[in-house]
Amino acid sequence: MHLPTLLTSLTLLPFTLSIPLISRQSPCFVTGSTPLPAETLKIANALAATVTCDTSLRPLQNLPDTISGGVRFSSINFENSDLLPLDFALNAFKTPSPPSAASLNLFTNRLNTYLAQEAGVRSIGGNLAIKAPKFFLAFQVARIKQSRGIAITDPGQTVEHLLEKVIKNAGRVSQVTKDEVTRLAKDL
């Protein structure tokens, strides 16, 4: 490297170092310091551009309310019900038959608020009861997509895979509830 080029580079170095190359700011819903699993971190970073927070409401484990496409987590919070989380989800997040008639946008926004809240819960090392309704919403989104003929390229987001996740995270619900979820997997 020539001396004039080196001097110019060294002169500009303070200016180039003051420009951040990578943003390290966490999404508004990740308020804790517990490291997130890689998959959750990827989802949280993807949602950071579309999910906003309302810190004046703290609907779940003192986390800010999350909003996606006008849908507030606080308006669909499973903890506002006396039902078990999966029973709540089965009642609150129904689709018509066939599910192709359901609003994919509405279900996606509902899912986004749950995904964001789960990331927040994980960041504070909180209770993960949210997983049952979150997986059920993902299952419903997959059902809507499959019913509409929308290709699902991620094997972790298929109806069949998400059915397993819903059942695995169902908690202490009745067999009737599990059977109803299994029946929905065939109603496409």
Automatic annotation (TrEMBL):
<dbReference type="Pfam" id="PF23631">
    <property type="entry name" value="DUF7143"/>
</dbReference>
<feature type="signal peptide">
    <location>
        <begin position="1"/>
        <end position="18"/>
    </location>
</feature>
<feature type="domain" description="DUF7143">
    <location>
        <begin position="30"/>
        <end position="187"/>
    </location>
</feature>
<keyword id="KW-0732">Signal</keyword>
<protein>
    <recommendedName>
        <fullName>DUF7143 domain-containing protein</fullName>
    </recommendedName>
</protein>
<dbReference type="InterPro" id="IPR055567">
    <property type="entry name" value="DUF7143"/>
</dbReference>
